[in-house]
Amino acid sequence: MTEDIQIIDTNSENILKYGVCGYKNIKKPGFPEKFDWIKKNESLGLRIKTLYSQNDGTQGMIEYLPGEFCYRPVDASGYMFIHCIFVGFKNAYKNKGYASLLIEECVKDAKSNNLNGVAVVTREGSFMVGKQLFIKNGFEKVDEALPDFELYVKKLNKEAKNPKFNDLSKNLTKYSDGLTIIRANQCPYSIKNVSEIVETAKKDFGITPTVINLESYKDAQENPCAFGTFCIIYNGEIVSYHPISNTRFVNIMNKIIKK
After folding, report:
1. How many C-beta atoms lie closer than 10 Å to residue 25's C-beta?
2. How distant, in Å, are the alpha carbons of 107, 181, 227, 249 from that of 234?
3. Where are the domains of the chain?
4. Residue 201 near residue 208 (C-beta atoms within 8 A)
5. Domain 168-258 is in which class?
6. Are 94 and 60 in contact (CB under 8 A)?
7. Alpha-carbon distance 101 to 185, whole Å?
8. Which of the four, 4, 81, 91, 132, has the lowest number of CB atoms within 10 Å?
9. Helix axes 246-258 and 190-205, enclosed angle (nearest 10)
10. In sequence order, which ranges of the chain are alpha helices (DSSP H)?
């Protein structure tokens, strides 16, 4: 570990200095929406910790809040819930234990708030941290959801009820007709791509999508996809479980239409 690293509490007042989700430019699509989302959820206990280097600037972050307010379709009341964590815009900061330090900060907050522990949804691949980081830090799997999402928890109160995924299949039935894109400002990366996907769906496939912007944690907890803040559904079938590019959307739709 380098000596110049700090872990800084980041909020709507200093976000322009430290950035969030790799964004620092207020004019970049996704940043204004994320900024507003942060302000809205700070009163619910949202915490963002920035891994900051005096030499190289922001090199990582962790975002978490009490489980009853999380933007994932889980029942995690009584736990602190991690939305996202990443480290290493520069390779020099990867695999140095900094992610574990950020998790420790979350565990400390859970303890100070007398919560039952810390929960997180994991997935191997894009947009989510894999389970190995959490296993290394004492988390255990307590539930899973299709196609390959897993819910992990580090318990502070061994007698507490485990968190669990909500009934995702029940929430999918309302999207049985047409193309539906579900997103939330918790994840800023999809703003630009969703706009492009909507135009492509109309132009190339003759489909006008329904775009649902999740306005609250309650809406996100009813998402039929375990990712919580993004989903693309076509005629009742989930065709993307995480944010995708316009090119990827075209490839998916071409395969579906050829069936």
Report:
1. 10
2. 39, 9, 17, 12
3. 5-165, 168-258
4. yes
5. alpha beta
6. no
7. 26
8. 91
9. 40
10. 15-18, 31-41, 98-112, 131-136, 168-172, 190-205, 217-220, 246-258
Task: List, for residues 18-74, the tens digit of each pLDDT value.
Answer: 888 877 766 778 889 999 999 999 999 999 999 999 999 899 999 999 999 999 999
- Asked whether the domain spanning 168-258 has the same topology as the one spanning 5-165, the reply is no
CB 156 within 8 A of CB 186: no
Model-level pTM?
Answer: 0.94
Q: H/E element holding 62? A: strand 57-66
Domain 5-165 fold is Aminopeptidase (3.40.630)
152-193 per-position pLDDT tens digit = 999 999 999 999 999 999 989 999 999 999 999 998 888 989
Region of residue 173 (left: phi > 0; alpha: psi -120 to 50; beta: else): alpha
Rounded to whole angstroms, the Cα distance separating 188 from 186 reads 6
